[in-house]
Amino acid sequence: MDPKIALVRQPSSSMRKCISSHPHHKSFNLTKARTQHDLYCKTLETVDLEVIHLESRPNDPDSCFIEDNAIIHKKKALICRMGAEVRRSEVEGLQDVLKQYLDVKSVEIPGTIEGGDVIHFRDRLICGLSQRTNQEAVDQMSKWLEVRVTVVEDASIIHLKSHITSINENLLIGTRKFSHHPIFQKFKVLVVKEEEKYAANTLTIGNVVIMPIGSPEAQFLVEKEDYEVITLDMSEFQKCEGAITCLSLLI
Fold first, then answer.
1. Which domains does the chain possess?
2. How much is the pTM?
3. Which of 71, 77, 171, 223 could make an SS bond with 167 (beta carbons 3.0 to 4.6 A apart)?
4. What is the pLDDT of residues 9-48, one digit of tens each?
5. pLDDT value at 1 more than 90
6. How far apart (Å, rounded) are the C-alpha atoms in residues 153 and 169?
């Protein structure tokens, strides 16, 4: 089912304290981040999504990365128990919002999972077993959402979708390391070069692929597949180790 709604949150006033090991994290600019976020939201509206702004969370620095808070498949949602303990308060109140649209359940202890680990397809999910997601939560997700889940295990990564994302049911874009993973061999994978690895995280709505600006070769690869590409400046979110998909939760 194609999404109709995007839930978003404005960057928090405390976002400078985000979880990040990015070398330019200290140069993070909140005003610029909010400007970039505004353009991101307007872009979602141009591809016919209804953008719903949830209340900002001033005490949760990473809360604009709302994708991590829940996993949605068809008519059900799973509220995440975040792998990063300091982020667990972000999901407060989200269940009440999602109940307006979906059947909702929360991950139970000892499961941990974040939405940035989950690649969505119509009849299956591919999920990273990462620093933030464990097998217990994957099992809970598969059971509640009634969907087959295949896992990519790599304890060195934070989120799988920082390295590979889906453009359609048969086409992915990713870094060289993950493009050669056995799980992705049945797909066509557009391989981004190392200098453009940030472009491995893309968001496709219909025939439009939203990508970070500054990755011309990756953009060319996508356009060759007959997709329209919209590029956005994501510099401030990159400093907080967030990307295009992280900023919205699609229903």
1. 5-250 (3.75.10.10)
2. 0.97
3. 171
4. 999 999 999 999 999 999 999 999 999 999 999 999 999 9
5. no
6. 21
